[in-house]
Amino acid sequence: MAKVNFIAVCLLIFTFLACQREVEEKCNLSDLRIEKGECHSDNTYKLILNFKHRNRDHDLFEVYIRNNKKIGTYKFADLPLTIQDFNMSGKDFDYIKIVIKDKPHCFLVAEFKPSMCEERKCSINELRTEVGECHSDGTFDLTINFNHHNAGNEYFNVYTRDGKLIGTYKLANLPITIKNFKRSGNDHDFIKVVINDKPDCFAVAEFKPPAWEEPKCSINELRTEVGECHLDGTFDLKINFNHHNAGNENFNVYTRDGKLIGTYKLANLPVTIKNFKRSGNDHDFIKVVINDKPDCFAVAEFKPPACEERKCSINELRTEVGECHSDGTFDLKINFNHHNAGNENFNVYARDGKLIGTYKLANLPVNIKNFKRSGNDHDFIKVVINDKPDCFAVAEFKPPACVERKCSINDLRTEVGECHSDGTFDLKINFNHHNAGNEYFNVYTRDGKLIGTYKLANLPITIKNFKRSGNDHDFIKVVINDRPDCFAVAEFKPPACEERKCSINELRTEVGECHSDGTFDLKINFNHHNAGNEFFNVYTRDGKLIGTYKLANLPVTIKNFKRSGNDHDFIKVVINHKPDCFAIAEFKSPACEERKCSISELVIHKEECTSDSTYHLTINFKHQNAGNEYFEVFTRNNIRLGTYKLSSLPLKIRNFKKSGRDYDYLRVCINDKDDCCKAIEFKSPGCRE
């Protein structure tokens, strides 16, 4: 193992020897040794490192490569440390740095000549194909095998002649069999085998597909068996048949006129078709067709069963009148017998054919609440089985002698309450009511405008902010909801309220900090009385709204106030929804100079190549007065690479594409600031595959 000269750097400025002695005495680190091992196919090699240490307080150290990129954290007990797959830097000398964990001032660094590794080229040879079993759909099995060297990946892809991916497979599973390989229709079929992520490492093969004739689909021995009859004249039909080379798992059944009866699974044969509808002919007919194979079918004619449709009927329809209600309606109980209904619901209609309701047969007898009388000596109902208009019964019956209890409102009382700054006042109302037949009531003004709808259960109720009419006496009308004839009115003396006028005074402005775009902060405050609103608006001289703010948040600071360009700037403060309640102020704007955006010290640090045409690079720069938190990066010809945060600087761009010229180019611009840019040209690295 060869000893490698190291450089130890202290935080304080010493001579080299003083630094070395400081590291050895205080950090207890010395004698860094490097041993290089075997090369790997991916430009890495094995690296063994060791050094002397006397560290009792710390048991961990970190390993870094060039550009301060950390490889890992290890225990002193791991020494000597073997790093498998150490990445070559591509430079004449590779670099390593050893740092005691959490003691950044205690470290050793070394530069050393890398191993002389040549990347071993990936190759595929002896690609062999073997055709296997044919399948009924014309596909066949294909076994492939090949030799490979320096694949650098555990997977490979198989493609057709037109570049369509057949599948991805593991090299470890070779040989592999591709099931149901689709023939191309050419005399010779084709495959291309490519190592995953290595498009230049491939092999192709052409081969003779196996001889195949598509087996013909057929249906035979189609058998039918009629079953149980149903009330509606339909019957059950059981079908079965033999089939060969169907190539589909489903079949369709059609009537004589080509109407689809249904689609069924071959696996479920024999199949029973429920409620098969007779054609009315002496013989009925079905056609069975394999799904998606119109030429693969069979037909059958058969004698339908002698089914008689059992007629639906309603009899013994009975009515019984019940309790009367305050609105003149009454309850009606109905019951009846029924046969062969073929439906679980029935409908009830009035004499004029208006539907009263739909009910379940299972719930008979049924009680119809609030049945409305017709006004005739006898009332009427018609009961019809749902969806069977010919299956019905009617009944006439004497309605009960119900006296409708009249709705009334009396003793309507009003009580005026607190006045408000806008001239309105609170109004408390209460009243007695009888036979309302509704749980709500409405309150109207003299001109019939609705004030509101309220619950009777909440009486007495207070109407907030009642608007005075301007007359000596104000007025309300109380009406039971949906009962326009059940109402009461009241007139009352409004309270002697004086509207308290809204005002703004002592509007004060205070200019604050200037910003890079020439705007500044503006603090405003004022006194206000009888605002009647919790918000206020601020406008410019030309009436443009600057913003809406809460009075409770005064004083308010308006950020980035835009100067007008006049000697004095201007604001108008208006209470929200009160255009007559305002104040204005003129004030001297601050002497702010717009600070110009600039980019300086743009540097590019080229890192390792990732292919013969790409490499990693890091960009960094300084910026002043950006006025934006993002920047954009462009290549030559104004092609944008992306948008990034300034806070992400320095920024690493991975797999940067070489321009093909001796010098590559980048331009950096602050977002939305086309005049704040900086460009740089830099030597393109000599990347080789």
Tell me about this structure:
This protein has 7 domains: 16-112, Immunoglobulins (Immunoglobulin-like), CATH 2.60.40.10; 123-207, Immunoglobulin-like; 218-302, Immunoglobulin-like (Sandwich), CATH 2.60.40; 313-397, Immunoglobulin-like (Sandwich); 408-492, Immunoglobulin-like, CATH 2.60.40; 503-588, Sandwich (Immunoglobulin-like), CATH 2.60.40; 598-683, Immunoglobulins (Immunoglobulin-like, Sandwich). Helix content is 2%, strand content 55%. The strands form 14 sheets. Strands 4-3-6-7 form a 4-stranded antiparallel beta sheet. A 4-stranded antiparallel beta sheet has the order 11-10-13-14, with no helix packed on it. Strands 18-17-20-21 form a 4-stranded antiparallel beta sheet, with no helix packed on it. The radius of gyration is 47 Å and the shape is flat.
**Which regions are unreliable across 5 or more consecutive residues at pLDDT < 50?**
1-20
**How far is it from the N-terminal to the C-terminal residue, by CA?**
31 Å
User: From the structure provided, what is the oligomeric state, counting identical versus distinct chains?
Assistant: single chain
Query: Biggest sheet, open or closed, and with what strands and sense?
Result: 4 strands, antiparallel
Discrete helix count:
1
The helix-and-strand class reads: mainly beta
By DSSP, the count of extended strands is 49
User: Rg, please?
Assistant: 47 Å
* Tally of domains: 7
CATH fold topology of the largest domain: Immunoglobulin-like
- By CATH, the superfamily of the largest domain comes out as Immunoglobulins
**What is the CATH C-level name of the largest domain?**
Mainly Beta
